[in-house]
Structure formats: C-alpha cells, structure tokens
Design brief:
Severin
Length: 157
C-alpha cells in the first residue's frame, strides 16, 4: 500500500459543509494528478461534478444511514470509456483504495475528531461495472484502519 504524503493533499469544503458539520449530507470527491501525484479532496453537500474527469478514476464517497446506524459508501466506476479495460481499472482501484481512504480520513480529520464514533462504522465499497466479475459490493473495514497518521490529527485541532 502506498503511504499518504500529507503535503500532496489539498482539501476544499464546499456549499456550507464545514470541517465539523453536517454528517449528512456530506459527500467526498477524491481526484488526483498522475503528473504531480497530488490528491485533491472536495467535501460538500454533493459530489464535485466539476472535478470529475473523462477517465472517471475518482473515488466518490458519502455518509448514509441504515436504520439508525451510519455507514460510509464508496463508489468506484470500474468500466472506463476512455481508459484501460475494466480488469486493469479494477486492479488499480483495489491497489490504490487504501491510500484513498487514508487521504479521506486524514483530510477530514477534524470531522472525525468531532465525531469519533464514525471511525468505527463500516466502509462499503461499490465497484460499479457492467461486467459481473467486477460489479461487486464489499466491506473494507472502517476508518480506524486507515488512520495511520493519527499523530497528525492532534496538530490539526
């Protein structure tokens, strides 16, 4: 798994979403630059559609409630109209998803500090594909598994 370089992560809050509120609606759009290896995290009341590129290789996430319990849903578009075939995209998403989850957890660390219970809700990943072998829904643990930079959280308060 790649390690997050916090200096290469930019975070932007949008449309009334703050570093601490609300829980719902709270949508995440994580994009990247292949050239600079920078990560860009947009947190708002909807996805940052203006940042979604033709490759559709961003990581989209949102908080949802199931009954009275929270979950975090991730959506990955495995089929790529302009990019590599689904098998390659599936491989890349699986390889890079831990880094993406770490970036989301680190980038929104003030939110997690304010709502520590959300570190322990399930992360449900939707691999979206027209090919049955790649169209899957999986549990990828919880954000406490991706909080490897917890010492940095204290400095962001």
């Amino acid at each position: 798994m790649s390690r997050l370089n916090p200096d290469k992560l930019s975070v932007e809050y949008r449309n009334g979403v703050t570093p601490t509120e609300p829980i719902i609606p709270r949508y995440y759009t994580l994009t990247h630059s292949d050239i600079t290896a920078e990560l860009f995290l947009f947190i708002g009341d909807n996805y940052a559609y203006d940042k979604i590129n033709e490759m559709r290789d961003e990581v989209l996430g949102e908080w949802v409630t199931i009954g009275t319990d929270y979950s975090y849903y991730v959506y990955l578009y495995v089929d790529g109209e302009f990019g590599p075939v689904a098998a390659i995209r599936n491989y890349i998403f699986r390889r890079e998803l831990p880094l993406a989850l770490e970036a989301i957890r680190y980038g929104d660390s003030t939110f997690f500090h304010e709502h520590p219970e959300l570190d322990y809700v399930p992360i449900i990943v939707h691999f979206l594909s027209s090919y049955p072998q790649y169209n899957k829904v999986e549990n990828w643990g919880n954000f406490s598994n991706y909080n490897v930079l917890s010492s940095h959280d204290k400095s962001k308060k």
